[in-house]
Amino acid sequence: MSVFYNSQTNQFYLHTKNSSYVMELYENHLAHSYWGSRVNAIPNLEHYYPFWFGADFSATDIPGRRFNSTDKLPQEYPTYGTGDMRSPALQVENAAGDSITRLRYESHRILEGKPPLSGLPATYGDDCETLEITLSDELTGVTAVLNYTVFPEKDVLTRSVRIENRGNTACTLEKAASFCLDLHQDGFEVIHLHGAWAKERHIQRLPQSAATMVFDSKRGASSHNENPFIALVRPETTEDRGDAYGFCLVYSGNFSAEVSGEQYGSTRVQMGIQPFGFSWELKPGESFQSPEAIMVYSSNGLGEMSRRFHKIIRQNVCRGKFRDTERPVLINNWEATYFSFNQEKILALAEKAKAIGVDLMVLDDGWFGKRDADNCSLGDWVVDKRKLPDGLESLCQKVNDLGMQFGLWFEPEMISPDSDLYRSHPDWCIHVDGRPRTEGRHQLILDLTRPEACDYIVDSVCTVLNSCPISYVKWDMNRHMTEMPRKGFTHQYILGLYRVLEEITSRFPDILFESCSGGGGRFDAGMLYYMPQTWTSDDTDAVERLYIQEGTNLVYPISTMGAHISAVPNHQVGRTTPVAFRSKVAMMGRFGLELDLGRLDDETLETLSKEIALYKTYQQDIHQGDLYRLLSPYKGRTAAYEIVSDKRVLVFVMNITGAPCQAPLMLKLQGLNPDGQYKDPATGIVYEGRTLMGAGIPLDTRRDHQDFLTVFEVYGA
Ligand code: GLA
Question: Is residue 407 within 6 Å of ligand 1 at its C-beta?
């Protein structure tokens, strides 16, 4: 039993294999007691606070108790207006015009498994138990149903909240965080994933400030700039040591993560839909569902935290046929041709790709309307007969005849002002009457709060997908939102998007979908629920990718990260790196190619062919195994990653810059059975796990852009 209520002590226990999360009913307030390594029982809150230590300046709404005010009490879902002066999780404007909510415990129930969240992506599965705690405001009827789901074997818990209006008058939600957590200490360091287009998810680790730190997006998408993930760690926490608390929101729109250092040395962490620009009216009887947050505690550093996120996202967020199976190695024509292609060019590329072992030809932007540049035709999902005179069916057939699958790019949420769709429905884009419609990349966004726009997307995309055997879809989204016509709009948009994605992906279960947003501008667990992989970045340079990919795999599994070998000099940064180095970097993701094979010499093609075969041999180990980050590009000139699967141990080393006169770098492996036997098939030598972890393996790091893949077969235990 992983969820347990102790009626003697009024405590709720949520246990995973290695951690416990404990709450207490404190005078009918839901208080936070503990989150950390597994405990069987802990004393009540007042035991840990034998005296009160702060000035009594707070309004006293719990008379006669040590925590005599909600301003002092560590809380699970705080509100504003009756004592707690900190940032509330829930902010409601009541019919009377005030913003006061007073939530008190009403009831709880424990459920096997986990109910789905209406209209939203979320973790799923039957390897879990759920605790539902209902808190309500007696006067207004505003009710918060807090959901805690525990995945005991995966050492993960999730939280979300449903706000119900059980009163007689309408009210308006101005903020409804997915969770709040009052940790009993401060002095943490906060890790967040910062970036920009082509520079996504760079890791930043900042000392916690005494004020509020906010990491957020107001762009209408989770964004390149901040990711809906943060971690709190102790200053001494490393990859394999120390406390790490990780939080990841299963959501693709505007979000906010707040970390506040509080007056009495505690820390309040909250995450949820971005309150800026948010507003949601709740009529009597209506309810609002928040997105879900996935929460991981690790006492063994960031590496263990990441592995727990990887497993839950891989197995309990991603869905469908491709979740656990091998996926095709693809070639995408974007960086090979950009908009300038025709049937002959695509078939020539496909033919060359087939010869070196590629399985799938993806036709990117430019196949529809009259799109020779990025300034027209989005919305007109009809093949451009100038480029493909025999139509898509014929191209698809010819690619299939080569023994390859065929895939296609769409950007369905968009509309170009120069498009037939816009000429017939100028009101379907997001706009405010009387204001100019701000364009981004010469395009506007379809208003997915309008059912007719959603229906159009479903119909037009499905018509193309039904027209020929398409095996893969890249779903792109290339600008951020402006002229939102009302508060709460961006969330309504995301709900519309999720409906469209559910409809299309469930109609085509055999198609592999990859999401994209100018690279990784919507790399979040929400999108991964519908599409099991995301194009990680428009920056395809192998060195740049090391930083982007390490930031991404801090939370997201490498099985979800699209990574391609592209041309040199690289199109984004002009750097030249060897093809084997580029290949190893791409193997640390969903491996593919994106370059004009017609420009490569035979030697490079041969190397590529060998690299593809190598990837295919180890694809399942790479994507189902446990990842250990051994050397970080953020800390030195060599990146090293180890993947441990049931059958093998793979060690990838990418040397960014070399240096002469170096002794071998002894790379110590992790996560092996010390008594286990591991055979290096190249030499036939069998090592004990403790040898590989203790003494390590020697590496030559003298040369720039050198790569190594060392494989050990699990030989015996
Ligand atoms: C975005 C994607 C690219 C490519 C272009 C096409 O930028 O990230 O991979 O598909 O759009 O316009």
Answer: no
Q: Which CATH number fits domain 3-316: 2.40.37.10, 2.70.98.60, 2.60.40.10, 3.30.70.20?
A: 2.70.98.60
Encode pLDDT of 319-368 as tens digits: 999 999 999 999 999 999 999 999 999 999 999 999 999 999 999 999 99
CB of 715 closer than 8 Å to CB of 681: no
Answer yes or no: pTM beyond 0.85: yes
Ligand 1 centroid–CA 362 distance in Å is 12
Asked whether 478 lines ligand 1 (CB < 6 A), one says: yes
Active-site annotation holder among 155, 216, 476, 524: 476
Question: How big is the chain by its Cα radius of gyration, in Å?
Answer: 27
The pLDDT tens digits of the residues spanning 3-36 come to 999 999 999 999 999 999 999 999 999 999 999 9
Angle, CA 535 vertex, CA 534 and CA 537 arms, to 5°: 130
Active site residue 539: no
Residue 680 among the catalytic residues: no
Phi, psi at 651, each rounded to 5° = -120, 115
Q: Which CATH class is domain 638-714?
A: mainly beta
Please tell me if the CB atom of residue 364 comes closer than 6 angstroms to any atom of ligand 1. yes
Q: Which of 538, 539, 541, 707 is catalytic?
A: 538
Count CA atoms within 13 Å of residue 47 on its CB side: 8
The top-level CATH class assigned to 330-619 is alpha beta
Q: Where are the domains of the chain?
A: 3-316, 330-619, 638-714
Q: Which residue's alpha carbon is nearest to atom 1 within ligand 1?
A: 518
